[in-house]
Amino acid sequence: MIEVPKSQYRLPFLLIRILAYLMAGTIFIQALGCLAAYLLMIDSQAAGMLAHLLMQNLSYYFLGCTFIILSLSNLLIKRGISQLKRVRWPLLILVVSVATASFLLIPRIDHLRETALEDGMPVMLSPFANYFVILNSIVFLLLCAQIFCGALVAWRLARDGIGSGATSST
Question: Which residue segment(s) compose the domain that 48 sits in?
Answer without folding.
Answer: 10-159
